[in-house]
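Re: How this chain folds, sequence and tokenised backbone to follow

Filed under: protein folding, tokenised backbone structure, sequence and structure records.

Contents: The amino acid chain and a row of whole-number tokens, matched residue for residue.

Body of memo: The sequence and its backbone structure tokens, given next.
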Amino acid sequence: MAKKDKAEELLKTLEDFTSKENWDKFFSIRGSDDSFEWYAEWPSLRDQLISHLSCLHPPSGDAGAPAPEVAAASVQILVPGCGNSRLSEHIYDVGFRSITNIDFSKVVISDMLRRNVRSRPGMRWRVMDMTSMQFMDESFDAVVDKGGLDALMEPELGPKLGSQYLSEVKRVLKSGGKFICLTLAESHVLGLLFPKFRFGWKTALHAIPQKPSNKPSLLTFMVVIEKESSSVVHQIAFSFDQCSLNYNENQGRDLLEALENENKVRSECSTDADILYSLEDLQLGVKGDLKELIPGRRLQRTLGEVGVSRFSYKVVFLDAQQLPEPFLYHCGVFLVPKTRARDWLFSSEEGQWMVVESSKAARLIMVLLDSSHSHASMDDIQKDLSPLVKSLAPAKNDNGAQIPFMMANDGVKERNIVQQVTSALTGPIVVEDVIYENVSADGSGLFSSKDLMFRRLTFERSLGLVQSEALVITEVCPEKALAETERKKTSSLSKSKKKGSKRRNDSLTSLTDESRNKLKVDHNYLASSYHTGIVSGFMLITPNLGSASLSGRSVRTVIIGLGAGLVPMFLRGCMPFLDIEVVELDPMILNVARDYFGFIEDKHLKVHIGDGIQFVREVAVKHGDGSSSKIPEDGKEISKIDILIIDADSSDPSSGMTCPPANFVEESFLFSVKKSLSEGGLFVINLVSRSPSIREMVVSRMRAVFTHLFSLQLEEDVNEVLFALTTETCVKEEFYPEAASQLQKLLNFTHPERGQSIIDTTKNIKCMK
């Protein structure tokens, strides 16, 4: 009795259930003859447990089936973390003779061996760590665990040890075998257990009957998990509700909640192609042999486990669609920053295949970073990922070749954050000055690349997308550097360059506070190639523009989307006959343009804060009958629009269309545009989409509305500038040079060479037949 009291006292202080020394001491005090049953007693377990074990062999009466006692004796059973429980002895005594018991306590294994060596000679006892078993794969028909998993799941090491143990269970079980786990079914245990056996396993949960008691206590549950050869996702079966779990209200509520959540996940998995597989599921062949390259195979999985790596990662695994090809890499890793994880290019299947193609890798492992990685450097993440991705490399990469890590880069050498503000409509807005890498000095040798400095406007909601970019100068823009800018600057200078940016706290050491105060935006130069492309399209209406210039008539120009105000300021300077109105939804953008990009309104350049779609529709309604280009309103004449430019970005980066927002290419709006335009008016859309299907959809809608369509595909950008005319006649391609010459004469520059890039771009405008 004294020994029992000491054991009970020791048990109260046994805080670390994973300590081998503590268990040795416990079992030494307890003794070999005093068994300790953590959970339900044998009478409560017997019927259900024997029923599940008996199903592991064909019943008697089948042709060629062994007798029941022979079948039972041949069932290979493993009891991990056996302790000094009598569970395996009871199982042995009902006819299951091939039982192996393991425990990491030498004390208890010695005691149990002595206790059973004569009465149960077929029973095997081995000192072994249940988280690292020395058994061959698929050695057992059943693994019977009575409290072993629960004991491992202590707060600090539990998730790691529990995961290792369950991985071993999956490994040593034969196909068709069963894992029978007796557990208190606490939420942190089920949170590990259910996902581990999600794909290719059948799971059922039973409540173990308990004697009635006035004092509520924790109920024991039997989780029975059967190993299948398929990858089917099954719902977890159970035959009780909270009313029947009347021993502990909290336990019953938590258990039913865990079951409901897991079955919801499993239901989604059974219908969703983007299932998050675990490495173990994949290694078991749920999606084929990982060591083989299977053209077009794409799957999602989680990578990294608590205690094994610093972080957990969501990974998209892609085998190139066309194999074999002369790939640069047999396997590569592509890191996607959290701020870009929702971009269509990385979040959609179509976009991901484009990344694979550009990576030149036979297998690409795309890693989507999230907020859990925010405080880690890219070097830390790469070190953490390196050993993990090796398990996903195809067999050809087993020769030890290093797996390259890739990440989009915007080519910025130095940067300085000028201002950061947050808008209720747009979110965080960043103004920064940058110097680009790999920009060689101009041929004259008078100006080096370090003299070329640019001010950029970016929105945090679409990081990597440069909304506006301007050349900044101190006093006078170095003219000879402009040619080099046009020729050499190949980094992200437009809205199309969707590349990841470097760390934002890099300092622009070449810019002191004093020199920054002298910087100003050069409004006589367009740094973004798509801005140049927009203006080059004016060639299509040079007869109208020339007539207006000569007669002194104003050309009503409406731009939807202010950005940094660079296009309207440029047009205001070089085409004074334009009357420019900008429609911007967010007043914060106007403040930023004024304060940091030198934007100035005057009588020929005004900004309306409002909805661009509504603005155009109001003009269309006023001119619905098409009888006149001007009508009276409150004593004022409201004219139709001569040039309408849509230069707005989408707030939804996952839509597949970065510019413009989807409602700007709805047919209803396009018809409003047509009604709002004057005879011979020009409609311009800056389209940014990497999806051919989305691009075709936009073009198809515009064809249905407009008589003539033109396209300018920018060589280095994803941008495509689309131009539409309402007139039945238009400039023929053979007259492009003449029209471009007329446009050049209309551009009013102190230095004519500034407009040369616009004229050169006109050569790339194509009529869409």
Remarks:
- The chain has four domains: 33-271, 277-406, 412-521, 529-767.
- The first helix runs from residue 2 to 12.
- The longest strand covers residues 412-423.
- Confidence is low (pLDDT under 50) at residues 58-63, 440-449, 486-517, 625-636.
